[in-house]
Design a protein that fits this description.
alpha/beta, two-stranded antiparallel sheet, homodimer, 200 residues
Chain lengths: 200, 200
């Protein structure tokens, strides 16, 4: 008995990550009940984002300009590159303020199961950057999965001719987490990477 | 380091029911990465819904027309009225196909704590309908809370002069639920409303 227009936005919302039919219904209803306070501003912001946001042709991040604000920021360390799977990883690292170099978004991970090979990722443009920007240090910030490790090793092999320092983020116990809830492999990696505490 | 446009849609999404900053970020990123498949259709559907959806002046449901398709449907029982708190309740009952009469959306419940009095609800238009449409039966489908009960009793008192049959949805054990997880008051109501099983 729902009108086609309502059904359509419920359907579109339910396809968004983290939303199901039930939550999509709640969202749609909320927007329709508050047209002026919620629906109109959302439409305007989406249109503006659609028109202004583009993929940076250098690092493949999303921004209003290409090259993006990170790529063109002169106060960032020019020869350090952090390799991430996705734009969201880049945003997460930016939020933590720990990295002051540049990024390279791969756009995925090598995956035999999903049929993702090197051509689908931005590996070629990465190698060009390494050469043209004379990158000296590369930090891999990839997922701790088989696909993440495969991608790391594949790219590391390609980097061999360039004489760059390659590192990968530490694996270990996340801050605030209970040992009891950790999986065995994280625990094993945490033991492997243990640091000796200097005595006073 | 996020551009203002991205920040703005994350902020708007995180205000929607059921979404927080984290899920809003995922949704925004998904839309920006899939402009043609996800963002553009969503914008178009939202604009269309914004222009076409309105509140029915009879029952206060949301629809593309006013009076809405339920109010104007000649195959629905004309003298039966189901009183609900919100449009979502009306949609939920419609999905279950159990009720063939008309609806009246109150737009909330009487609540001393939230300062919601009879004037904020559509009670006046309800009384007009009862009279002009010579309603014979009213079913309250309100929440089983203090506010729901208060609203039920308040409206029932107002209905006294009209000679209508008034009922309220049964309280009891939801289908498929474990007795162990039910609260005491639901159990008590389920006992109170128990039905005797005829012997063969």
């Amino acid at each position: 008995m729902l009108s086609g227009e309502v059904d359509r936005i419920i359907q579109l919302f339910s396809k968004l990550p983290g939303l199901g039919p039930r939550s999509a219904r709640r969202v749609a209803l909320h927007l329709l009940k508050k047209k002026d306070q919620a629906l109109t501003p959302l439409i305007e912001a989406l249109i503006q984002a659609k028109e202004s946001i583009q993929t940076c042709k250098v690092c493949h991040n999303l921004d209003t300009s290409s090259p993006c604000t990170i790529c063109t920021n002169p106060s960032r360390i020019p020869n350090h590159l952090c390799i991430v799977e996705d734009v969201s990883d880049c945003w997460a690292i930016e939020r933590s303020h720990v990295f002051k170099g540049h990024y390279h978004v791969l756009g995925g991970l090598l995956s035999a199961i999903d049929g993702i090979g090197p051509k689908q990722l931005t590996i070629e443009s990465l190698l060009e950057r390494i050469e043209s920007q004379s990158i000296q240090e590369v930090v891999f910030a990839l997922r701790a999965t088989v696909d993440g490790q495969t991608t790391l090793h594949y790219i590391t092999d390609l980097l061999e001719p360039f004489n760059v320092k390659v590192s990968s983020l530490a694996r270990g116990i996340p801050v605030g987490s209970d040992l009891d809830y950790l999986d065995d492999s994280t625990l094993a990696l945490a033991f492997e990477g243990r640091r000796f505490v200097p005595s006073h």
